[in-house]
Design brief:
The protein is α/β, with parallel strands linked by helices. The protein has a single domain, classed as Purple Acid Phosphatase, chain A, domain 2. It is about 15% helix and about 25% strand. It has a six-stranded mixed sheet with strand order 4-3-2-1-13-14, with helices on one face. Strands 5-6-7-10-12-11 form a six-stranded mixed sheet, with helices on one face. Strands 8-9 form a two-stranded parallel ribbon. Strand 13 and strand 14 form a beta hairpin. Helix 1 packs parallel to helix 2. The chain binds manganese (II) ion.
Length: about 240
């Protein structure tokens, strides 16, 4: 077993049909972002890739676009853990199935291929996360869980709200509190739902939004070792 584990964390790729989302708000297609994230993982020899929600923009995406995404994932060369977000929530006629992604042996889709935990025994890593299943509100980050591996990473797709603003944001769904982040007990919390890359939460908690590839222009490179966690933002190249 190596000394540590290297992860690439991205989110909010919003892959959509090819003729949409190419205006000023989203200047780069989600498939380009996905290719760039996987290229970064390859260049860094990352152990695995985390996609923390809204990989896809909506459930109506044309099947050929879904197939292109599946082809990129098929060539990832390493495990990929996908957390369904509010834009790509799990549904009975799930887009991940239509894409063929559920058939890829090295791709885990939380809530579909795995309930809420993916264990990588060989590298001593456990990934936990609660998938979105629809529009209903729920706490995206669960309580601390007993460890089954030396490293534990939590994924969550939702809206971080600092303690003083909690009530002001009562209208929002999928709020993530300081208490939830502090109580998660994970070595790293991989967040999605925001387009910008930012660290959030109380001191002593390694909780990061990666931001989207097209707006942040980067992904998070996470190194977990016995000494702690190191996080850097890495520029993505198309
Ligand atoms: Mn979202």
């Amino acid at each position: 077993m190596r000394d540590g584990v290297v992860l690439v964390h991205s989110s909010d790729l919003h892959i959509d049909d090819l003729d949409t989302h190419v205006g000023p708000k989203r200047g780069q297609h989600g498939l380009v972002g996905l290719a760039a994230v996987l290229a970064l993982a390859r260049a860094q020899a990352a152990d695995l890739v985390l996609l923390a929600g809204d990989t896809f923009d909506n459930a109506r995406i044309a099947t050929p676009v879904l197939r292109q995404a599946a082809e990129l994932l098929a060539g990832a060369g390493r495990p990929v853990v996908v957390l369904p977000g509010n834009h790509d929530a799990l549904q009975p006629d799930c887009l991940f199935r239509r894409a063929g992604i559920l058939d890829l042996p090295h791709v885990a889709v939380l809530g579909a291929t795995h309930a809420d935990t993916v264990l990588f025994d060989a590298i001593g890593l456990e990934i936990i996360g609660r998938a979105h299943h629809g529009d209903e509100d729920f706490p995206p980050l669960g309580p601390a869980r007993a460890r089954r591996a030396r490293f534990q990473v939590a994924m969550a797709h939702g809206h971080y709200v600092p303690e003083p603003e909690w009530e002001w944001h009562a209208h929002r769904s999928w709020r993530i509190s300081d208490a939830a982040l502090a109580g998660a007990g994970a070595d790293y919390v991989a967040l999605g739902h925001w387009d910008r890359a930012v660290r959030v939460g109380p001191d002593g908690t390694a909780a990061f939004y990666s931001g989207s590839p097209d707006l942040a222009g980067s992904a998070n490179l996470v190194r977990l070792t016995e000494a702690g966690v190191g996080v850097t933002r890495e520029v993505l190249r198309a």
